[in-house]
Every structure is written in structure tokens, then in C-alpha cells.
Amino acid sequence: MNKKCVFIYTIGCQMNVYDSEMFKKVLNPLGYIPVEVVEDADLVIVNTCTVRKKAEEKAFSFLGRMRALKKKNPELIVAIGGCVAQQEGAAILRRMPYVDLVFGTRAYGRLKAMVEKFEYDRIPHVDVEMTMGIAGEIVTPELDAEVEVSRFVTIMRGCDNFCSYCIVPYVRGREESRDPDVIVDEVRALVERGAREITLLGQNVNSYGKKEGLCDFPELLRRVSEIDGLLRIRFATSHPKDLSPGLVAAYRDLPKLCNHIHLPVQSGSNAVLKKMNRKYTREDYMERIARLREVRPDISLSSDMIVGFPGETDADFNETLELVQEVGFSGIFAFKYSDRPNAPAANYEDKVSDEDKRRRLDKLLVLETEISRTKNLLYAGKTEEVLVDGKKDGKEGPQWTGRTACNRVVNFTVTGGVVEGSLVGTLVPVYIEEGLPHSLRGVFDMKGH
Ligand code: SAH
Ligand code: SF4
Ligand code: F3S
Question: Ligand 2: distance of its center to the CA of 278 in Å?
């Protein structure tokens, strides 16, 4: 079998990152080896996102570049996968005739056969079938003997929540959970190859297993946490409406569960939350945080926010600002509302002007930077446990990098001895000397001072 090269460009959420790893694995038996330079590729795959208009545009602009490459090398196979592929299907082939394969979010089980057939007959093909039962088909994605310190594991696919602004339920299909035994085996296999931190992924992990009558999410966390050699567990994303007492108990009982939760609130206004179909109020949200803080008083919280949802007034937006102040998030991902095909909000009246959206976004980001800077300053003088994930050679000797349990980036140097082997993959206590706006700087004293 000839050795061939595949280049994968991944846009979008962590689930796409996971899926791209899986593509590498399923294409390996055809002789495809992943490469980092697109010009070296025999097969190019762009794994796409359509959550906002901008993400979609990014996919099309990348595909646009493939036109010239294909002219130079007519043998090149160009494939588009993921959420834009699912949404647009055959329309992509009409718009971009140099694209060969379009495969949707539930077609990865058929990807190998698709590519193999195309190599033989060169007939363009579209597969956007919304088959169910694919959660069980996920294959452990790693190819290499060694893997990164921090890895993702998808535990469920799809979403049943239908928030009114969101396209995900239409492009990812209904919720489906994977078997817990398979998940535990996959995590164990990753840990054996060097992973020390696992992030469990789903659009709404709190409803894991409910439909299928499998174990619930807190039970899954318990099972994963028993794996020897695994040091840290994270998860994303957790929907506030389903944050259960069982999850609070998991935070109380499981030391490997990181002291951080990403709990997207989207808005601080009850009127907006209702129109978004989020199924919780601002008060419910605050109450859930209070329960988490009872068991983990210093837990760090991050969130997603949408500004300029249809009908959002300045008063609504001010409630979002107040909520951000009140909670004291350690990080926020803030987005301007974007109309999406199929999502009901696209038909809502009272659209907010782009100028107002921009103004609100800027305000929110200024507040966020301020809060995050103040929080980081408070770390100075403290010692934090850091999971080391890399090393750079700087002017003043080696610089190590890692993250705290709260997910803050730490850059540090080592004193008091010479590191034998590597610190990567270990937990070390780092004395924080300085809190910068987006990271912390410190030192690890090997003599333990
Ligand atoms: N399942 C996750 C979110 C996945 S999408 C959850 O419910 O938390 C990631 C984020 O994109 C969302 O939290 C939301 O803030 C943002 N988003 C989704 N649709 C959007 C839209 N139409 N316009 C702007 N932002 C959007
Ligand atoms: Fe979209 Fe809501 Fe589902 Fe998240 S929970 S993916 S925001 S519909
Ligand atoms: Fe984007 Fe699809 Fe993820 S739309 S956010 S890549 S589920």
C-alpha cells in the first residue's frame, strides 16, 4: 500500500477536535499519514463549524484556497466534513465544483469507504445521512504510541435542547450517549499512552445516559476518576438547567475533578433567557452556583455570553453586566448574536443593530479583562498545583508551561536542582510570583522551599 498524506484543518468546538483525531484513525488503514503542511497532502479535509456565520465563512474561505492547490495537483482529494457539510450538503458541490467529498456529522463510520471509493472511481459523493446509533461506533482516536498530556473524550453526541438561537441540534442531530464501559476503556488507553488530564465532552453532559438508561453523569465521573494514573478530570459543556445535586456531590467527593466549571449562562436577563428557551432563570443560575460553592468555595467559573439577542434592550444587557460582576467569572467567551438557518430566533423581530452588538460586546470584554486581571493579581504569593504540559527554551533557560486546576496558564522556571527527564505530565507546586492579565508567572523550587 502506498503511503499517502492527509492534512486536516479543524474549525469549531472541542468535539470537532476529537472527531478530527478520529478521522486520522479511520483513514490510517488506507495508508494516510497526517501531515502539517497542506501542500504535502494527497487528501485535504476541512472539519467545519456553523454555530455562527463567521465560523461558516472561515470554512468557505479555506475551501477557496483549495481551488488553486487542486489546479496544481489535479489528483488532490478535497473533502469537507462537520457541521457546515451537514447543513449545506450537495449545495457545496454546486458552489465549489473542485470539492470531491461532503460528509456530515454522522458519516464518519462511512468515511473510510467513501475515500476508498473515490480513489478508485473519482465520482464526487455527498453523505449527510442523519443515522442514529453512531455513538457506539466511535473509535478510540489515538494513533501514536504517545499522546498529549491533556485529551478530549466525547461521551455523547447531538443535542435535544433547541435553544432558540442555536443550529447545533439541526446539524448534530438528537442526543446519544456512549456506553460507559467503552468510555472508561478509552480513557484508560489514553492514560496508558501518557494522558494525565481528560475532558469529557458533550453539548449537555448533565443529561448523559438518561435517554438510554445508562449510568448518569456523576456516576460516570466516579468511574473515570478511579482510573489509576489519571490526575485530572474536566468536562464541557454543562447546561445550567440540568446541574444536579449528584454533580454537586461529585465536586464534593472527587479530588481529581478540577476546581473549575464552564457553565454557560448566555444572558443575565430573565426576559432574554426565556426567549432563548434556556429553561432556567437568573435566580436558578445563581442558586446552582451557590450550591457548588458550598462544596468548593473557591471553584472558578467560566461562561459563554451572547450579546444582541433579538429584542435585547440596554436594560437587559445591563443585567448581563451585573451578573458578570456578581459571579466573578474567571473567563468569558462572549459572542455577538448571529442569525442561523433553522434556528427560530432567526425569525424573531426586533433585531439589534450590529453597532449596538459591537458596543455591548466591547463593554462586556472590558469588564471581563478587568475582573480577570484582578483575579490573576490575587494569585501572586500563593503556591498552585500545576499540571505541566510543555517546555520552551527561552533566553534565560528552560521555561515550563502548565495549567492550574482552575485552568489558568502558568509559565515557570525551575530552581534548586536539575530536572532529570521531563516534568511534562506531572503535578508540581509552583510559587506564583506575578499575575499577568492572561497568565501567571512563577517558579518551582525542587528543594521544596
Ligand atoms: N452546548 C453548549 C454550547 C455550544 S455552542 C451550551 O449549551 O452551553 C457554544 C456557544 O456558542 C454557546 O454557548 C453560545 O454562547 C454561542 N452561540 C450559539 N449559537 C449562537 C448564535 N446563533 N449566535 C451567537 N452565538 C451563538
Ligand atoms: Fe445549542 Fe442549546 Fe444545545 Fe447548547 S444546549 S448546543 S446552546 S441548543
Ligand atoms: Fe460548531 Fe458544530 Fe461544534 S456548529 S460549535 S463544530 S457542534
Answer: 9
DSSP H helix total and E strand total for the chain: 13, 19
Nearest CA to ligand 2 atom 4: 203
For every residue of 50-100, DSSP letters joined together read -SSHHHHHHHHHHHHHHHHHHHH-TT-EEEEEHHHHHHHTTHHHHH-TT--
- Please give the pLDDT value at position 1: 65
- Whether 169 is in the pocket of ligand 2, judged by its Cβ within 6 Å, is yes
**Which amino acid, residue 373?**
R
Ligand 2 atom index nearest CA of 160: 3
Confidence at 443, pLDDT banded by 50, 70, 90: very high
Q: With 60 as the cut, is the pLDDT of residue 311 above it?
A: yes
Residue with the smallest CA separation from ligand 1 atom 10 is: 304
Question: Which amino acid makes up residue 136?
Answer: G
User: What is the CATH superfamily name and number for domain 383-445?
Assistant: Nucleic acid-binding proteins (2.40.50.140)
pLDDT score of 318: 98
Ligand nearest to the CA of 164: 2
CA dihedral of residues 87, 20, 165, 246 (deg, nearest 10): 140
Distance 364 CA to ligand 2 centre (A): 22
For ligand 2, whether the C-beta of 153 sits within 6 Å is no
Give the confidence band of 372 by pLDDT, cuts at 50, 70, 90: confident
Substitution site in 157, 168, 204 for ligand 2 pocket (most atoms within 8 Å of beta carbon): 168
Instruction: Domain 140-377: state its class.
Output: alpha beta
Domain map of the chain by residue range? 4-134, 140-377, 383-445
- Please check whether the two domains, 4-134 and 140-377, share a CATH topology: no
CATH 3.90.226.10 fits 4-134, yes or no: no
Per-residue pLDDT, 141: 55
Q: How confident is the model at residue 87 (pLDDT cuts 50, 70, 90)?
A: very high
Distance, in Å, from the CA atom of 206 to the CA atom of 276, rounded to the nearest integer, reads 19
Q: Which ligand 3 atom is nearest residue 84's CA?
A: 4
pLDDT digits (tens, 9 = 90+) for 380-414: 999 999 999 999 887 777 899 999 999 999 999 99
Global confidence as pTM: 0.95
Cross-strand bridge partners of residue 102: 80, 126
